[in-house]
Amino acid sequence: MFWTGELIARNAPIRRRASPPPWELPHLAKGTAAYLGLAIGDALGATVEFLTPGEIRHQHGSHREISGGGWLRLKAGQVTDDTTMSLALGESILAKGCVDATAAAEAFDAWMRGKPVDIGNTVRRNLIQFRKTGNPEAPASEHDAGNGAAMRVLPVALACYGRPPETAVFASRAQAHVTHHNALSDAACETLVFMVTDFLAGRDADAVQRERAAELVRRHPVFAYDRKRRDNPSGYVVETIQAVFQAFFANASFEDCLVDVVNRGGDADTTGAIAGMLAGARYGLDAIPRRWLRALDPATHQACERQAAALLQLAGG
Q: Which domains, from first to last, does the chain contain?
C-alpha cells in the first residue's frame, strides 16, 4: 500500500543525506527526460487545446509537430502554465530546501503577478485568496477537482526520489492544496509522484500499472480508464488521468504516447504535459524525438535540465 493517512509534520523538510551526486546515478537522465517530456507535451498539446478530435483532423491531420499557434497564439516551442508553474514550484523547493506550502504559494503568486500566458480559474481564485489571508492552504472543496495541481507535480516527485512514501504524500499535498484542496486531485497527484519515482528507479510499466494505476482505481473507481476511449478530455482531473493512462499504457514509445493523447483534443496541453512527464521517466532521453527537443524554447529547455539535476541532487545529496 503506498497511500498513508499519517502525514509528517507540516512543512517538514526533505533533509539532505549522503549519497553519490546525481550525475553518477542512472536516474538523472530519466529525471531530465521527465522534465523535458512535460514541456514538450505542453508545447505540442497547446496547439490543439480545446479542439475536438474531428477539428484536429480537419485542421492538422494527425497533429505531431511543435508548431505553436492555437487559441493562445503561441510561438513554436513556447509552453503554458503547466510548465511554468512547475518551474516556479521547483525554484521554491530549491530555495527552501524542502517542499513548503507557504514557499510554494508565494512562488505561484509571483508567477501570477508576472502575467503568464494562461492561468486556470481555480488557480487564480485560490491564489487571490492566499493574497488576502496569507493562508497557503485553500479550503477543501469538492468543486476544485481540476488538473491544475497534477500538471505541476513533477518537481515534488524529483525532490522526493528515494524518500519514504509518507514524505512524498505530504509534499504532494503541501503544493497541491495551495490551489486544489480536493481528494480526487490529491489521489491523482500522489499516483503520478509514485509512478515517476518508480520509473526513475527502473521499474517496468506493467508493474507500475498493476500497483499504481490499479490502486488509484481501486480506491477511487471514478478513475477507471478501461471502459472507453477518452476523447476531448476536460480540465476535470479524472478525465485528464483517464486520457493520459489510456494513451500511456496503450503505446510503446514516447512519441506514440504523446501523439495519441494530444490528438484526443480537449485540455491537450495538460494531458500532453502529464503524459510527457510519465513517458520521459519511462523511456529516457534517447526516446525523445530530436526534432521536438530542437523545437522547444531554448530557455525552457535549459531550465528543465537544470532543475531536474538540482532537484535530484536535493533528494540524494
A: 22-316 (1.10.4080.10)
